[in-house]
Amino acid sequence: MTSTAYQAGRYARQAARGLDTCPRYGITPEARVEVAEWRRGWNDQDREMAAKRPAKRNAK
Q1: For residue range 13-35, what is the model confidence (pLDDT) as tens digits?
Q2: Of 2, 5, 50, 57, which residue is 20 to 30 A from 32 by alpha carbon distance?
Q3: To 10 degrees, what angle do helices 2-14 and 29-52 make?
Q4: In the chain, what are the domain boundaries?
Q5: Which long-range contacts (CB under 8 A, 24 or more apart) does 9-17 make?
Q6: Is the full-model pTM beyond 0.85?
């Protein structure tokens, strides 16, 4: 399930959902791993998207 949570986090970022929309999988230690994987997927996708954006230039 961990790879599923990771991919779900990536899809959430592609859909412009915020990091605060992370699902609550449960209260067990295993569930916390799922949440961490979702956030890792979200952050990885965010980094990839940021790298593709053109650099902003100074307005002056």
Answers
A1: 999 999 999 888 788 998 999 99
A2: 50
A3: 40
A4: 2-52
A5: 9/37, 9/38, 9/39, 9/40, 9/41, 9/42, 9/43, 9/44, 9/45, 10/41, 10/42, 10/44, 10/45, 12/38, 12/41, 12/42, 13/41, 13/42, 13/45, 13/46, 13/49, 14/45, 14/49
A6: no
